[in-house]
Amino acid sequence: MEPSVDLTLRHARRSTQIKELAIQSILIASSLVAILTTIGIVASLAFEAFRFFEKIPLTDFLFGLEWSPQMAIRKDQVGSSGAFGVIPLLTGTLLISFIAMLVATPLGLLSAVYLAEYARPKTRAIIKPLLELLAGIPTVVYGFFAALVVAPIIRAGGSGVGFEISSESALAAGLVMGIMLVPFISSLSDDVINAVPQALRDASLGMGATPAETITKVVLPAATPGIMGSLLLAISRAIGETMIVVMAAGLAAKLSLNPIEAVTTMTVQIVTLLTGDQEFDSAKTLAAFAIALFLFILTLGLNVIALKIVDKYKKQYD
Amino acid sequence: MTEYALTTSPSLKRRHAKEARFKWCGRIAIMIALGFLVLMFSAIIFRGMGAFQQTKISLEVTFSELIIDPSSARDPQELARANYKPVLTAALAKTFPNVTDRNGKKRLYKLLSSGAVFEMGKLVSDNPDLIGTSQTIWLSASSEVDLFMKGKIDASLDENLRRLSDADIAYIKTLKSGGMIKKKFNTAFFTNGDSREPEMAGILGAALGSFFSLLVCFGIAFPLGIMTAVYLEEYARKSKLTDLIEVNINNLAAVPSIVFGLLGLSIFLGVFHIPRSTPLVGGMVLALMTLPTIIIAARASLRSVPHSIRQAAYGLGASKTQTTFHHVVPLAMPGMLTGTILGMAQALGETAPLLMIGMVAFIVDIPHGVTDAATSLPVQIFLWADSPEKGFVERTSAAIIVLLMFLILMNLLAVFLRKKLERRW
Q1: What domain count does chain A have?
Q2: What is the pTM for the complete model shown?
Q3: Which residues of chain A have a CB within 8 Å of the CB of B270?
Q4: Is residue A260 domain-shared with residue A224, that is, in the same domain?
């Protein structure tokens, strides 16, 4: 009877092996979804953008100073070629991101320094989640607040000192976006500051430096690469942010760096080109994909650099 | 003995002052950020609380069979669509016997919401016995009357500058003195779909749209996310493939959400022809977006399960799969669920990608499944915020309050799970 026992055992082992193999294949397949998503994004954006560049030359898009995607409905209509220069959109995006970073950088860094170096554990346990709440609020809420509360305040303040500020201004969108970015900067910088070895602080304090001197002259310089990484991530977020600018920044594509004027951004134009009536083949809809490809490359580049910096920094003190 | 212990040099004093200033800078930064949070919440709550009440006008309505159901068929669908305008004008005429001219009657009728006839239709088709009787019922007032009752129309303004004439205001005052106009709890806001009329607009359609989208999103992202995490943490040896997967996950987490919308537009809608504007395609896009969040949380949770558990299982003869799925995954589940809930909360607040796949249409019907056209709560907020009607301002804020409530609930649930179920090793 012995051989048959052996046979069933071997049979059982084989079926287990097959099961293991099947499960492992399923697991591999599901983890490929992440890669497939990236491929899907790149392929769909590149494909539609390529069709766009068949109609509009790449150089016109990258270096064009004018953006007016109005295409004529009939071929024989006058002025049937719209202008598809991305530069005004890029300047608008960068202007708003710049204003946002102007708000977010000092607030985020100072909060991070206070939380990491000064706050008692109890205070920290209350304030940190409260700050992170800012990151959890949907951006449509920020947009509504920017348009309904912040913009009128800025306009009233402007007319008080004799400025004419339009109700949709880069300033309102940028300020509110800046607040939204505070937790992104503060929590990452907080981690980075905490990772600076205590020995550095002790040495500085032991030499008689005040805590503030220790922070500004020892801790922050040591943490600079990581902080840079967190700022780059925040910039990439600002560039890709959509709802705040859609609701508060406006549509006019002007080549202007004036923060109290209405400016438009890449994300706003994607939304305007793709919501509402559209036919799938027109240069107008395809243009949205070209902008999105540009946006994707820009944010991806920023991210890769940021993650590299943070990674390198982490290894430095590990 | 020299007293250098007690003398402080002026430079030290300066340095200490600087220290105090620096510390205050940190405090002020936090105060500004949190102050903004408080300002935003209070502005929204202040504006939105009004929408939970709706002005109603009480009328003594005679449900005349001749007008409502001349055929006496009592067909509920016919009853819902019957012509209730003459019934309401008659009731108004009874309340205001002095108003006899055409113009005045027209104005009176305008005090009621244009949705009042639908309220009547629903009431009668639900209770056909009302026909032939005379009842006092409460009907929704128009948005202007509602705004006036909530003190948002200034009666001292010039008549031409406000949406209600002096005559209208006089009517409202008459109603008020008779106790026939009152603010009541706004059930319509929670039971109606979208509407062009602010006083008839509700969030149920959008909330269900969000619910169905999240259902799809969870159904896709949760299993995929957990399987990916299990593969990367438990099965895969470090290789080029796993590196590539990891880089992809990290980068996907930072791709602007609107790009996911474009992916949905060109692949899900363009190639697979999934119906536009549906929670199905919305949920799929949101799933791809939340996948990195779930994977990252699930991996951290798997890593926190101690090795001794795995070794114990192997020692008793369990296979890799048995060890992983019978022992490691169940122990890591609370952390995985916490991460998933946070991912779902993020998906619930997302707007931009949904705009790209057509979930931004004006949809009155309440969706009943994942393939019905729908919007979602944040998109509804965006649509209302864009609306020029003044009555929508408070409804937008109220919808935000509801959305934030859901988000807070989900976050509390995540915190609860973490506190109650997660084990410390």
Answers
A1: 2
A2: 0.89
A3: 44, 280
A4: yes
Tell me which residues of chain A, numbers 103 to 162, contact chain B at a CB-CB cutoff of 8 Å.
106-111, 113-115, 118, 127, 130-131, 133-134, 136-145, 147-149
Q: Which structural domains are found in chain B, ordered by start?
A: 50-186 (no CATH), 204-421 (1.10.3720.10)
pLDDT tens figures, B79-110? 888 888 888 988 888 888 888 888 888 888 88
Same domain? A30 vs A121: no
Q: Give CA–CA dist B299/A25, Å, rounded.
A: 19
Q: Please check whether residue A79 touches B, CB under 8 A.
A: no
> Which CATH number is A233's domain given?
1.10.3720.10
Lowest mean pLDDT among A75-89, A168-182, B58-72: A75-89
Measured from the Cβ of residue B387, the count of other Cβ atoms closer than 10 Å reads 15
Please tell me whether residues A44 and A89 are part of one structural domain: no
Strand, coil or helix: what is B57? Answer: strand
| Interface contact flag, B16 A38, Cβ < 8 Å | no
In a domain, residue A95? The reply is yes
Q: What is the pLDDT of residues A180-198, one digit of tens each?
A: 999 999 998 998 899 899 9
* % pLDDT > 70, chain B: 98
* Tally of CA atoms within 13 A in the half-sphere of B310 that contains its CB: 16
Residues B381/B400, Cβ–Cβ less than 8 Å? yes
Residue A136 to residue B345, Cβ atoms within 8 A? yes
pLDDT band of residue A318 (cuts 50, 70, 90) is: low
Give the Cα separation of A184 and A131 in Å (integer).
9
